[in-house]
């Protein structure tokens, strides 16, 4: 086995192990396993029941033809987040400490007569190694006053795991469990738990290959710590 293949195998195994550890931590105490709910166009959606909740969690997996820098450039751009996250009509950075940590306010459109839902989350990016990034989202509803025209939802758990499986190809794992609050029935929300992440990842495929993001590269300081992302002009 050549060195390139060995490196790729090592990254895949490390990412798999990290996914298992994160999933075990986030869903500690649950006996439900993931069930494959959708497998279409290079996107796999898994769902599971969550103890004490009427709403299912999901885990979505795909491989995009883009570098880690390209994918992270999209995740770090509020306008791009509105474009690829299906149903997200407003994405605003409230506060940013540095490349690795920021807070965001999101608004998600729901069909009438339901009110739109909004979230406030802290986003923390952890660079596992040169080829793997883990992004944890933590609910921070108290950071912004509630809007009477919307219902403040909560996100008990959410993360992204980005792994460069080979140069120019990145595996994206996104997992969330959301409590929409209000009076939405579980069956209605659960009917969207495969459709929304599927459309989001298909949008990400399209966006990541656009010229603006396709040549993105990391900007690092003298210690090799990422300080930003440079986009193609």
Question: What is the overall shape?
Answer: globular
Element string (H = helix, E = strand): HEEEHHEEEEEEEHHHEE
Could you estimate the helical fraction of the residues in percent?
Answer: 25-40%
Structural class computed from helices and strand pairing: alpha+beta
Indicate the low-confidence ranges by residue numbers. 12-17, 19-31
Q: What is the number of domains?
A: 1
Number of strands: 12
The CATH architecture is: 2-Layer Sandwich
Look at the structure and name the CATH superfamily: START domain
What is the number of helices?
A: 6
Strand content: 35-45%
Rg from C-alpha positions? Answer: 18 Å
Largest sheet: 10 strands, mixed
Write the CATH fold name.
Alpha-D-Glucose-1,6-Bisphosphate, Chain A, domain 4
CATH class: Alpha Beta
| Separation of the first and last Cα atoms | 39 Å
SSE map:
Blueprint: H1 3-26, E1 35-40, E2 43-48, E3 57-64, H2 68-75, H3 78-84, E4 88-98, E5 101-108, E6 116-129, E7 132-139, E8 150-152, E9 154-166, E10 169-179, H4 186-190, H5 195-208, H6 211-214, E11 217-220, E12 226-230
Parallel strand pairs: 6-8
Antiparallel strand pairs: 1-2, 2-3, 3-10, 4-5, 5-6, 6-7, 7-9, 9-10, 11-12
Overview of the structural elements:
The protein has 233 residues and is an alpha+beta fold. It has one domain: START domain (Alpha-D-Glucose-1,6-Bisphosphate, Chain A, domain 4), CATH 3.30.530. It is 27% helix and 42% strand. The chain has 6 helices and 12 strands. The strands form 2 sheets. Strands 1, 2, 3, 4, 5, 6, 7, 8, 9 and 10 form a 10-stranded mixed beta sheet that branches. Strand 4 and strand 5 form a beta hairpin. It is globular. The relative contact order is 0.19. About 8% of the residues have low confidence.
